Target: Phosphopantetheine adenylyltransferase
Amino acid sequence: MRKVAICSGSFDPITLGHLDIIKRGATVFDEVIVGILNNINKKPLFSVEERIELLEETTRDIPNVKIDSFNGLLIDYAKKVGANCIIRGLRAVSDFEYEMQIASMNRKLDNEIETFFIMTNNEYSFLSSSIVKEVAKYQGSVSGLVPPVVEEALKRKFSIPR
Model:
């Protein structure tokens, strides 16, 4: 049986921490589907289409990674695409309580889909998309926090001279 995992999130924008989790997941699973959640309750900086494009660019060298987007419950999306695993990245102990609740609810909704937690590389344990956007908004350097293509996209969004 193929091991298909979903790594979901808003990825607004993708950080090197996200990329680390995706790459490490790709070494464990036959296929990793990066599912961009289209959350209508949030006002993202990048459109879903832009996020797909940025993720495709940053993962193009990982042959078993596929980029997609979805609405609704993650567990429903997992069933739809035939995934049997969900990958969740953990930065710190503070993430664990929230992620445990989500994993428990997903297990209640479908006990055949497992959740795998991957601890982030310590180098990225402080990193979040929100922090990256805040730094970029005020023209701080996000080099070393996001892939170069994302850094350029952030500069365009915030009209920062290159």
About this structure: The chain has a mean pLDDT of 94. The first helix runs from residue 16 to 28. The CA atoms of residues 103 and 115 lie 6 Å apart.
